[in-house]
């Protein structure tokens, strides 16, 4: 065995240990991404993670992203959709590809045990000071987007067209994408022919990419119901109208929407997460407030659930003798997103491209839905616009840890948990390489469908 062969075998073994397919472990792009992570991207990741910012408050984060995109050669506009950043990298004539990354953190006190854990507190848009943490991996998303921009800038001989880099605010409030669209994302800037995004997944092994056509994230709607009663002494209930009793009737009636009004073969969730009313044992309040989250996997089911909530709330008011101008008020739409759907031809094309690059074993193409998480990337893509979209997941946890969790020997930190953490190097390098690969496939010579 010669020295070169031995080195190659050692490199392949190390790649497999890290969850990186051996087929591209020594590839020029893989090497360049890994080198860029060690020299540049890791420092950005550590800074982003230690300094998270809440939704629509991502001013520091946005400035860093804008500066890095400018260094990569993009023309940058800041303040799009409140704090969003748009970077345009043009390289001759060709299609337009959007690469989107979300950048906000969550109101959590971090307890991950990481040396670079956040200790940040910030005044939220509601005026309350809260702890802040990157508990969903958005720090890896924006770091990877910067890495993608840097690689594409260095590989302009391999693609022609325009790449639109979008750093989106307030995904956690599912409001940032809609704000950017309202601020002219598709009219002030080149409208994409395709839109791409990814999410790191703590429940997926490092080195793996989840990608499949069709539904990729559920719809989500935050609903507020305000019930107006007539306050009175708790010992004289006949003198008032009790909003707590009406609220309880609404809560119980809402349970019939999923169990009795949509098909048992369709998915839906109506969860009352908050029920507040009153201040004292012997006082019947004059108001009660409910906060509800609604999830579905189909926009028609979504409409049926939302219409049902309004119908139930208002008719409970009528049942209790409230006048028409005092019926419960139902507020929908302030934190809402439709379902996110991957375009089938685009997904099939990029799946084939990923299989050639990373190997079929690296792809998870038929994973069952395990929850009803939502994603406001939906506002950028079909069926809500005419832009075909692709949203994929990149693994963030070593296979050994996942196996230990399945055996009951370890508890994996979940997304939106104070204990959340992923393997940043493995996540960012794979995501960056995958995104660069997808963009070059769509903007490469001919810009036509990739051959089988």
Q: What's the level 1 CATH class of the largest domain?
A: Alpha Beta
In the predicted model, the low-confidence regions spanning at least 5 consecutive residues are 1-23, 448-452
Element string (H = helix, E = strand)? HHHEEEEEHEHEEEEEHEEEHEEHEEHH
Which outline best applies?
elongated
Instruction: Give the class from helix and strand content and strand pairing.
Output: alpha+beta
Return the domain count.
2
**N-C termini distance:** 35 Å
Tally of helical runs:
10
CATH architecture of the largest domain: 3-Layer(aba) Sandwich
The CATH superfamily title of the largest domain: Zn peptidases
Assembly state of the chains shown? single chain
CATH topology heading of the largest domain: Aminopeptidase
Largest sheet: 8 strands, mixed
Number of strands: 18
Describe the structure.
By secondary structure, the chain is of the alpha+beta class. The chain folds into 2 domains: 14-217 and 339-443, Zn peptidases (Aminopeptidase), CATH 3.40.630; 219-337, Alpha-Beta Plaits, CATH 3.30.70.360. It contains 10 helices and 18 strands. Strand 1 (75-80) and strand 2 form a beta hairpin. The longest helix is centred in the first third of the chain and has 23 residues, at 28-50.
């Amino acid at each position: 065995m010669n020295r070169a062969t031995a080195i190659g075998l050692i490199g392949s073994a190390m790649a497999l240990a890290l969850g990186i397919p051996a087929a591209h472990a020594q590839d020029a792009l893989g090497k360049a991404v890994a080198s860029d992570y060690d020299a540049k991207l890791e420092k950005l990741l550590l800074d982003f993670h230690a300094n998270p910012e809440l939704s629509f408050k991502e001013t520091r984060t946005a400035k860093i992203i804008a500066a890095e995109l400018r260094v990569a050669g993009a023309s940058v506009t800041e303040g799009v959709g409140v704090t969003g950043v748009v970077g345009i990298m043009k390289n001759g004539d060709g299609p337009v590809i959007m690469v989107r990354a979300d950048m906000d953190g969550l109101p959590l006190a971090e307890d991950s045990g990481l040396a670079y854990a956040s200790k940040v507190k910030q005044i939220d848009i509601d005026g309350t000071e809260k702890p802040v943490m990157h508990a969903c991996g958005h720090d890896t998303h924006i770091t990877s987007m910067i890495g993608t921009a840097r690689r594409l800038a260095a590989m302009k001989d391999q693609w022609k067209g325009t790449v639109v880099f979008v750093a989106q605010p307030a995904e956690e409030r599912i409001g940032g994408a809609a704000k950017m669209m309202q601020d002219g994302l598709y009219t002030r800037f080149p409208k994409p022919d395709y839109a791409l995004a990814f999410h790191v997944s703590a429940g997926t092994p490092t080195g793996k990419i989840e990608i499949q056509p069709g539904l990729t994230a559920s719809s989500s709607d935050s609903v507020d119901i305000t019930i107006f009663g007539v306050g009175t002494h708790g010992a004289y209930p006949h003198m008032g109208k009790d909003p707590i009793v009406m609220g309880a009737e609404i809560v119980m009636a809402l349970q019939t929407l999923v169990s009795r009004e949509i098909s048992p073969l369709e998915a839906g969730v109506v969860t009352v997460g908050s029920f507040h009313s009153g201040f004292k044992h012997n006082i019947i309040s004059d108001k009660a407030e409910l906060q509800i989250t609604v999830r579905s996997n189909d926009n028609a089911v979504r409409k049926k659930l939302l219409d049902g909530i309004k119908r139930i709330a208002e008719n409970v008011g009528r049942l209790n003798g409230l006048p028409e101008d005092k019926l419960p008020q139902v507020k929908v739409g302030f934190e809402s997103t439709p379902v996110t759907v991957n375009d089938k031809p685009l997904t099939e094309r990029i799946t084939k491209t990923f299989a050639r690059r990373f190997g079929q074993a690296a792809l998870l193409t038929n994973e069952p839905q395990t929850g009803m998480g939502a994603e406001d990337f939906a506002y950028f893509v079909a069926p809500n616009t005419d832009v075909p979209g692709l949203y994929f997941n990149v693994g963030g946890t070593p296979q050994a840890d996942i196996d230990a969790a399945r055996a009951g020997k370890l508890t994996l930190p979940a997304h939106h948990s104070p204990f959340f953490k992923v393997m940043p190097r493995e996540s960012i390098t794979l995501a960056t390489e995958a995104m660069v690969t997808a963009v070059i496939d769509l903007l490469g010579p001919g810009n036509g469908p990739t051959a089988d």
